[in-house]
Design a protein that fits this description.
The protein is 34% helix and 22% strand. By secondary structure, it is an alpha+beta fold. The longest helix has 25 residues. 44% of the residues are buried. Bound molecules: flavin-adenine dinucleotide and iron/sulfur cluster (SF4) (3 copies).
Length: 500
């Protein structure tokens, strides 16, 4: 998915329409804030002067495209589905139209009308086939009556996300903020009001501000090569795989697929660096790292169940031309949001592969220590591995012993913010990897893009991975779908009450 607007789009628009749209775009609060704070932005040295102008140019292009679409939408009397609106704009790529309509809705220019219908479906519940009622939601969009709604919604800085307790501490806002006004650690977010120039960029890309799921889903449904599942998102193929390399088997969490893919990417010069995590000076407290040499790769293998602000480090990875990033689903969501709503930020352009992990929940480092002490009566420093498998939380100790407790007994230690998460399988990644569904010692792999398929098959050809179809192993894909669906149904909804 391209982040920037292709200027060729504008060649098809009449000069008058383009001029009107550009004029209106220049009044957008985000662009004005960015324009007026040029000196402060350059003083912070996050972006060079050339990058500053590229970002500004890209923001103006994106807003111009949106204003053009808005103007044309005002001539449409009825509310339409996204797929129908696309057909009204033959001169603009469908994915641009879809993302623009959703963004215009967030800006307050377009209204969303929701229709709820009830349908009867057959379901097998506890082995018995039953007919149950299910709600179906239909979303239509219509430009608002502008006389009343000329003022666009101003996007709050992301402190609002933290205040309502839904920040996932991914660190993305901190990485992108042009004036370094945000500091994010694994359990804290601090915003310097004096530095903030109120550009709202952080809010646009934050995975917990407004949802881009509908835009993403509609775009993916345009691609006939993809299968779409309500429970695990869009995918090309699903596999169960394991590494063939003994050194990776020693350090891996499950099938060692992630480390094998990363090794393949680095060794074959398909990326210049990878972003992952490794133990910090405190064992089991993960710290994000940039690895550009295979010899340092194995230190990153294995799951650390405490969260880390991995996206913070993207700022430092900016100078690598192509990177692969490993992260949990909320991080994949942030990255795609940044690509979908263009801002021209330079480091979006270098993320070449998104490798997503499955994730049911994560824990603060303090709570992981507490969990190990209270549930197992052990010191965290005595652990060689933690794992979640078959409904159990399992620990392995340095003395070779293995202990487990039911997963439900550790759920109260999980981060509250994870209860708002509806994505188990990293739906926004190029390739997603987890243990659910795959036999012990293997990983379940969901390929979601051509790039994901290329690197998986590349690693297979290089002799690093062997695989079967996920539908042909036990317990198999149905379990991933079942647990993915259950996570989605249980997720709490986020209420920000912004702009009130
Ligand atoms: C917090 C968390 C919760 C998870 N919950 C589930 C679950 O409920 N069900 C399930 O099937 N799978 C879950 N997983 C994924 C699973 O634990 C494995 O990471 C996955 O199966 C890949 O295994 P592998 O052997 O291929 O990975 P490996 O080859 O061992 O590589 C693991 C990769 O994950 C990265 N990583 C480890 N910890 C973190 C972290 N905290 N943040 C970001 N990246 C990290 C490492 O840097 C490394 O690149 C979870 C992962 C995490 C991080
Ligand atoms: S971008 Fe990430 S760290 Fe920043 S507010 Fe949003 S969730 Fe929190
Ligand atoms: S904190 Fe957010 S709104 Fe404020 S300057 Fe940084 S990115 Fe812009
Ligand atoms: S459960 Fe969701 S919000 Fe929590 S760490 Fe995993 S992906 Fe992020």
């Amino acid at each position: 998915m391209l982040q920037q607007v292709d200027k060729k789009v504008f060649e098809k628009i009449s000069p008058k329409d383009l001029l009107d749209a550009t004029f209106e775009a220049s009044m957008n609060f985000q662009i004005r804030a960015f324009f007026e704070a040029k000196d402060e932005i350059l003083e912070c040295s996050k972006y060079t002067e050339q990058e500053y102008y590229e970002i500004l140019d890209s923001m103006i292009d994106a807003e111009t495209e949106r204003r053009y679409i808005l103007k044309k939408m005002k001539n449409i009397d009825e509310a339409l589905f996204l797929e129908e609106i696309v057909k009204e704009f033959k001169d603009i790529p469908p994915e641009n139209v879809i993302r623009d309509v959703i963004y215009l809705k967030e800006q307050g220019y377009v209204e969303e009308q929701v229709e709820v219908k009830t349908k009867k479906v057959k379901k097998t519940i506890k082995g018995e086939e039953k007919v149950v009622e299910e709600k179906e939601y239909f979303y239509r969009y219509k430009a608002k009556d502008t006389e009343m709604d000329l003022k666009e919604h101003y996007f709050e800085p992301v402190s609002i996300i933290d205040e309502v307790g839904v920040c996932v501490n991914c660190g993305f806002c901190s990485a992108i903020c042009p004036v370094n006004a945000i500091n994010v650690t694994a359990d804290h977010l601090e915003l310097d009001e004096d530095k903030c120039m109120k550009c709202g960029l952080c809010f646009t890309v934050c995975p917990r501000s407004f949802s881009m799921n509908r835009a993403y889903e509609t775009i993916k449904k345009l691609d006939n090569s993809l299968t779409f599942s309500e429970k695990i998102g869009a995918y090309l193929k699903t596999y169960s795989g394991t590494t063939t390399k003994d050194e990776i088997k020693e350090v891996r969490q499950d099938g060692g697929i992630v480390t094998s893919l990363l090794e393949y990417l680095l060794k074959n010069n398909l990326v210049d660096a990878i972003v992952a995590v490794q133990h910090s000076d405190k064992l089991w407290k993960p710290e994000p790292v940039i690895v550009d040499d295979v010899k340092d790769l194995y230190k990153t293998a294995g799951t650390k169940y405490a969260n880390a602000p991995s996206l913070n480090i993207l700022e430092k990875a900016k100078n690598y031309e192509r990177i692969a990033l490993v992260g949990v689903p909320c991080m994949m969501n942030a990255l795609v949001k940044g690509e979908l709503f263009p801002s021209g930020l330079p480091f979006f352009k270098n993320i070449t592969y998104r490798i997503g992990l499955f994730c049911m929940e994560s824990f603060s480092y303090d709570n992981i220590i507490k969990l190990v002490r209270e549930q197992f009566n052990e010191d965290i420093n005595n652990l060689t591995k933690m794992n979640i498998d078959s409904g159990k939380f399992i620990i392995n100790l340095k003395n070779g012993e293995e202990k487990n407790v039911p997963l439900k007994d550790v759920q109260s230690y999980a981060r509250d913010t994870c209860h708002y998460c509806d994505d188990l399988t990293s739906e926004y990644a190029d390739i997603s990897v987890g243990s659910i569904g795959a036999p012990g010692g293997s990983s379940a792999v969901i390929i979601r893009s051509k790039a994901g398929e290329e690197i998986f098959q590349g690693a297979v050809k290089a002799g690093l991975i062997e695989f079967k179809k996920l539908t042909e192993v036990k317990p198999g894909q149905f379990l991933v779908e079942r647990i993915g669906g259950s996570k989605r149904n249980k997720a709490k909804s986020i209420e920000l009450n912004k702009n009130e």
